[in-house]
Design a protein that fits this description.
The chain has 437 residues and is an alpha+beta fold. The protein has a domain of 156 residues. The chain is 46% helix and 12% strand. The chain has 15 helices and 12 strands. It has a 5-stranded mixed beta sheet. InterPro entries: CYP450_sterol_14alpha_dmase (IPR050529), Cyt_P450 (IPR001128), Cyt_P450_sf (IPR036396).
Length: 437
């Protein structure tokens, strides 16, 4: 966008002209667009897209500097907000009292996994003995049910209330901001009318759950009670809306990437019967390492920090003075598969617990990640890996699944953020195993 003043980085890095990001200009493949800029300009360059200036960094020192940025100087939270608000109504962000990052304490994980088991029970009822299902639709519905059981209150994971919330959250999907960034201009032009109607629907259903909580239906809904208690000092109307919007933001932030990662994990295990046999024989450590490896390869994340105050940023070949208003960014899919030999292949043995077993082939261990590094590691990592392991083991242990297509779906080309969403349906046939492990 010519004529728009942008922050001046000193000294001036190479500028990738003619390159844009997909929420501002039409691109065929968002990751390939940045890869071309990197091939032309090296590991450090700027991209001017819309009104924004991005400083991309891919060098070992630059990536280490990126992860070391203090939140108060270069904010992940602000960068995430600026991305998600392209899709979500502003009111969902206002005055939140319980944030997603507050709900993944050690004790909470056991609660979520108990709700996962209940959600899997319901999933088995819905699947029946045999049939065909689209794998990502299956995992998305499972994710909805588990999450809503965990934090949306009584009646939210069953029956009419559940179906209403599924429809609302499928509309109110913040991940569209980075999965379908090319659609955000139309969302803005509509005034987010569909998203606001969906948020109103969430408020009605969660409000009914709040009535049941206030009537004494607390057992199994302690987390929802915690969210509600934060609003007990407000009048009823303000309280109902506040609780519902807290629940909405928690659910949007917590579930969609997990559901997609679980879908890819199922496909990866189905493609490797030898690994699947070991997982079904009880090798939980292997199952968790497989989930990590799937997540690494499925990453399409742009990792971004909004610069709040001037910062000196070292990329190894230069130290840049970066002013407020700039976004410093790196792109996980361009690092996770190229930073060392063999990284393009799926191999759970490259992990030891949650760390790479061998980093000798990497210029920096921080060049490869599934959940981030340092203080900005995803707080839901322990829960996500436990949930993926438990769900994959249960589903693949109870059912024989077989993809109905000979080709694996690729990611949505325009996507630039989060875990990859499949660009095409992936139906799988299934039948219940006669002898369950």
């Amino acid at each position: 966008m010519s004529g728009v003043p942008r922050p001046e980085i000193r000294p001036s890095p190479p500028a990738a002209t003619g390159v844009g990001l997909p929420w501002d200009v039409a691109v065929e493949d968002a990751v390939a667009e940045i890869a071309r800029a990197r091939a032309e300009h090296g590991d450090t360059f700027t991209v001017d897209s819309g009104r924004e200036r991005y400083l991309f960094t891919f060098s070992p020192v630059g990536v280490e500097s990126f992860y070391a940025l203090p939140e108060e100087v270069a904010s992940k939270g602000v960068a995430d907000y600026l991305m998600l608000r392209r899709k979500l109504p502003d009111e969902i962000f206002a005055s939140r009292r319980t944030l997603p990052s507050m709900l993944f304490r050690r004790g909470d994980v056991a609660t979520y996994l108990a709700h996962l088991e209940s959600a899997l029970d319901e999933t088995e009822v819905e699947l029946g003995e045999a049939g065909s299902v689209e794998v990502f639709a299956l995992t998305r519905r499972l994710g909805h049910r588990m999450g809503l059981a965990s934090w949306a209150g009584p009646g939210s994971d069953r029956g009419t209330g559940f179906e209403r919330l599924v429809r609302a959250f499928d509309t109110l999907d913040g991940s569209d901001a980075f999965v379908h960034p090319d659609a955000m201009a139309a969302v803005a032009a509509s005034g987010k009318v569909a998203e606001r109607a969906a948020l109103d629907e969430v408020t009605l259903v969660v409000g009914a759950a709040l009535d049941r909580l206030d009537g004494g239906e607390v057992e199994g809904h302690e987390l929802f009670a915690r969210i509600a208690a934060a609003w007990d000092d407000e009048p009823d109307g303000v309280r109902r809306e506040g609780v519902a919007h807290d629940v909405a933001l928690i659910h949007i932030a917590s579930m969609s990437n997990l559901a997609s990662a679980l879908g890819w994990a199922l496909l990866d295990l189905l493609a490797r019967p030898d690994v699947l046999d070991r997982v079904l024989d009880g090798d939980r450590d292997l199952a968790e390492r497989a989930a990590l490896e799937t997540t690494r390869l499925a990453q399409r994340s742009i990792m971004a920090r909004s610069v709040m105050s001037e910062v000196r940023f070292d990329t190894g070949d230069a130290v840049y003075t970066v002013p407020p208003g700039t976004t410093i960014a790196t792109l996980l899919p361009l690092l996770n598969t190229t930073a060392g030999p063999g990284l393009e292949a799926w191999d759970p043995d490259r992990w030891s617990r949650w760390r790479l077993a061998d980093t000798s082939g990497l210029a920096s261990p921080q060049l490869v990640t599934a959940f981030g590094h340092g203080r900005h590691t995803c707080p839901a990592q322990p829960f996500s890996l436990s949930a993926m392991t438990a769900a994959a083991t249960r589903l693949l242990g109870r059912y024989e699944l077989a993809p109905e297509s000979t080709t694996s779906p690729g990611p949505v080309p325009a996507q630039i953020g989060g875990v990859a969403r499949a660009a095409s349906p992936c139906p799988v046939g299934y039948r219940r195993r006669s002898a369950q492990p």
